[in-house]
Amino acid sequence: MNKKIITIITLFIIIFGLAVYLYSSSIHVTPLTQGPNITSSDRVLIVAPHPDDETVACGGLIRYCVKNNIPLSVVVVTNGGKGHMGVVRHQESINATMTLGLPPENITFLDYPQALQYLFNDNWNHPWEEDGNSTQNVFAYQKNALNTGDNIEKNLESTIKDFNPTIIIYPYPNDANPDHWGTSSFVEYATNNLNYTGKKYSYPVHVASQWPFPRSYFPQINLLPPSFLKNQINWLVFPINDSDEKIKYKAINNYKSQLQGDPTFLLSYVRKNELFIPYEQDTVQKKPVSIDYINNNQFPPTLFKDPVGDTLVKPPLDTFYSTVSNLNLMDLTDIGFDEDNNTIWMSLKTVGGPSKIGIYNFHIRGFGSSGVNRIDVKVQNGTCNYVMLASNSLKPDSLKVKVNDNGIIIGIPSNLLNDQKYMLSVDDMRNNQFLDRTGWYTVNIIS
């Protein structure tokens, strides 16, 4: 072999080894809080978008529950693929969870298509029609259920009520994968509708294009958050001993259909720990007087912050969008909320201020005694319009909007909802492509 090539390879190995060492050892420099804390009195429900996510993200936690006789149930929302692939992945999931020690009767398959983003946003009542318009497989929780968001939400409610969990673990709300984002959205909706009061934690999977790092099987190192999210999220670390780590490795290897394309991705989650994020929500005091956010220089108080740098456009398209249209204008940051005696106010800010050609969508779901109602608002080029997407969509008589260099503010008549609890979300897009979106955030209103 050419000496130059040998030198390059040797240098690469040294640099790579140093990177692995620094990455794995950094957890001792800035330690993360250990959790979630699971006791013998808990009942744990894990909700997975696809057959494999329960093992990839929570295999070590599942082992802990099995060994300590803690009741645990898994719900898999989608079939993981069209036709026969759904059957294959179903069996792989059964085999993997059995390897972890979980009996097949402890896992439920809802069997919906991989279109959860659309089923939550657009196809709440109208069925998604691809490879059939309903659940088809014999293992489906509700056989022949139409592929609608409403049915998924009802199925989730039923499984939550039947199992009565004290802890629910589900995907990170800002996960870039649309099925992970959708699963998180459905869990948030169902638990709000049920007035669930137990603990909730989320898990990351598709949060960055180069994560987990290093990308391959490195069981001797720690799984750490993506560097750009490390200080933006309150992370919890769940340690895994060597024995359970080996069992998780064997469990993941049951997913042969997924290992064929990129074996390094799934095996990157066989580490000395798993990562989780504690659930948070907020409370807002309803103002007894009117606040004119349109004509004053203020923005509604920030309710939550969307992580900077988590846009959905990944290499190499991120370079294209940054060059052509300044991706910073679509990178959401502060999401504001307030309610006065006649208006619900929502706002957004971006890293570089709003784009004149982008589309910004505001979403709100109100939970009250009359059921759940929704309002969806689109802002484009300074114009604000409502969008009717479901049978529970409401039509505002009037909408207020202000767009300036700092961000966008909208005002919705509060008499449309007038509820004590809301779910909020914001997204933006250009050329029919989502560029950034927040997870759903719950706010409780007190008068």
Automatic annotation (TrEMBL):
Identify a single GO molecular function assigned to this protein.
Answer: hydrolase activity, acting on carbon-nitrogen (but not peptide) bonds, in linear amides
Fetch the Gene3D superfamilies from UniProt. Answer: LmbE-like
Q: Does the keyword ATP-binding apply?
A: no
State the InterPro entries in the record. Answer: GlcNAc_PI_deacetylase-related, LmbE-like_dom_sf
| A Pfam entry, by short name | PIG-L
Q: Which UniProt keywords apply?
A: Membrane, Transmembrane, Transmembrane helix
Would the keyword NADP be found if you checked this record's keyword annotation?
Answer: no
Enumerate the transmembrane spans: 5-24
Known PANTHER family for this protein? N-ACETYLGLUCOSAMINYL-PHOSPHATIDYLINOSITOL DE-N-ACETYLASE, N-ACETYLGLUCOSAMINYL-PHOSPHATIDYLINOSITOL DE-N-ACETYLASE-RELATED
Task: Tell me what this protein is called.
Answer: PIG-L family deacetylase
